[in-house]
Amino acid sequence: QVQLVESGGGLVQPGGSLRLSCVASGSIFSINRMGWYRQAPGKQRELVAVVTGDGNTNYDDSVKGRFTISRDNAKNTVYLQMNSLKPEDTAVYYCYARVRHTAGLRLDAYWGQGTQVTVSS
Question: What string of DSSP letters covers 66-85?
């Protein structure tokens, strides 16, 4: 009913930049939270950044000052601008959205398929 489609992952050198995009489509009345999580090899999935329903942003301490999350509500799209990338940023990045459906205004959470970000020389 709702799908999240991600793009922008890839291989980048340390200090470089990438911009991730995620667009939600389907029977969407509104989106509350929308953001990004990541999972590195051998580690738990963790929050990277999120935009809340009231427009506030939250970041993991490890990315503050380097990553910027933004949201285009008209396009149901969230972006993650990643600057000054470090090897420890290497992970699979997952888009997340909390969606209220048009049919019955039901609330559900959705995940993207994940996109690989690799920071290496």
Answer: TEEEEEEGGGTEEEEEE-S-
Pairing of strands 107-111, 91-101: antiparallel
- Output the six-digit token pair for 27: 């029977």
Below-70 pLDDT ranges, the chain: none
Q: What span, in angstroms and rounded, lies between the C-alpha atoms of 29 and 56?
A: 20
The per-residue b/e assignment along 20-35, b for 16 or more CB within 10 angstroms, e otherwise, is bbbbbeeebeebebbb
Q: Please choose, from the candidates 99, 66, 91, 90, the residue with its C-alpha nearest in 3D space to the C-alpha of residue 80.
A: 66
pLDDT tens-digit profile of 90-121? 999 999 999 999 989 999 999 999 999 999 99
